[in-house]
Amino acid sequence: MRKYIQIASRTTSLLMKPGGFNQIARRLRTMALERYYGIETNKVVYLSELALDHAERREYAPVDFNDFDTLLARLTVTKEQNIFIDFGSGMGRALVLAARAPFKKVIGIELSDDLNDIARKNISRAMPRLRCRNIEVVSIDATEAEFPNDPTVMFFNNPFSGEILDRVLQNIRRSHSLNPRSITIVCNLPAKSAFYEQISKVEWLDHKESMTLSQGARIGLIYEVKQRGRGLAA
Ligand SMILES: C[S@@+](CC[C@H](N)C(=O)[O-])C[C@H]1O[C@@H](n2cnc3c(N)ncnc32)[C@H](O)[C@@H]1O
């Protein structure tokens, strides 16, 4: 009985805050979708709990379902020809959501073995509802990751910044120089972040679109790697 009184009291106080109704609607949608796909991703895990903490690495926190759908809807690439990579894939929510579309392959790159084990369980439970069944989760630091030679959509939900981000971006640039192809970079970031400060200065990326997400709390960004001869510095 006390539990229900607590839920009712929390819901009422949230409803009275500005935007409270939207927050409740989002929470209910999250619960419903987690249940529909059979996944459990709705947690925050600090990397200190996994003995992986580092000043440039961000904790695990899943992408918002609405935000991901907004970003995916703006992509103009042919999904059947593209590989989707999530940098810092955590418990696999973005992998599951991407695999609802007919991507050629979906790859998660995640530092933590523990989070990857959870992601694999989530993927196998969601599998009957997914269109892309070719999903791989790799336990590796993003700076060590190798990229496929296919056209690729690369997703970043604020996983890291600083030196780590610089190295990952240089690896993407090198991979593109060796094998020019379409590379789309999709970001979901807090309204202010070190990641945004860094990526917005990269001259070899063509900024395609910015959008407001999570009622202004976050921004979505879409970039494409410039093809040679289209303003790309040597
Ligand atoms: C904000 S969460 C994003 C989770 C997932 N992409 C999603 O959108 O639902 C960031 C993730 O990046 C991972 N991460 C941080 N630094 C990393 C690195 N250097 N290499 C690989 N993964 C990293 C963290 O462990 C965490 O799971």
Reconstruct the topology from this structure.
Elements: H1 2-16, H2 20-37, H3 65-74, E1 83-87, H4 93-98, E2 105-110, H5 113-126, E3 135-139, E4 152-156, H6 162-178, E5 183-190, H7 194-199, E6 205-213, E7 218-225
Parallel strand pairs: 1-2, 1-4, 2-3, 4-5
Antiparallel strand pairs: 5-7, 6-7
The structure holds S-adenosylmethionine.
S-adenosylmethionine (SAM) is lined by residues 47, 57-58, 60-63, 86, 88-90, 93-94, 109-112, 115, 141-142, 157-160, 164.
Explain what the structure shows.
This protein has 234 residues and is an alpha/beta fold. It has 2 domains: 2-37, no CATH class; 47-225, Rossmann fold. The chain is 37% helix and 20% strand. Helix 1 (2-16) crosses helix 2 (20-37). The protein is globular. The model has no long low-confidence stretch (mean pLDDT 93). Bound molecules: S-adenosylmethionine. Residues 47, 57-58, 60-63, 86, 88-90, 93-94, 109-112, 115, 141-142, 157-160, 164 line the site of S-adenosylmethionine.
Task: Output the keywords.
7 strands; alpha/beta; Rossmann fold; binds S-adenosylmethionine; 234 residues
Strands in their spatial order, largest beta sheet: 3-2-1-4-5-7-6
CATH architecture of the largest domain: 3-Layer(aba) Sandwich
**Beta-strand residue fraction:** 15-25%
CATH class (first level) name of the largest domain: Alpha Beta
Average pLDDT, rounded to a whole number, is 93
List low-confidence stretches: none
Instruction: Report the CATH superfamily of the largest domain.
Output: Vaccinia Virus protein VP39
- Class by alpha and beta content: alpha/beta
Major β-sheet annotation: 7 strands, mixed
Helix content: 25-40%
Tertiary shape = globular
Each distinct ligand: S-adenosylmethionine
Q: Find the CATH topology of the largest domain.
A: Rossmann fold
Q: Measured on Cα atoms, how large is the radius of gyration?
A: 18 Å
Overall structural domain count: 2
Q: Secondary-structure element order, as H and E? A: HHHEHEHEEHEHEE
First and last CA, distance? 68 Å
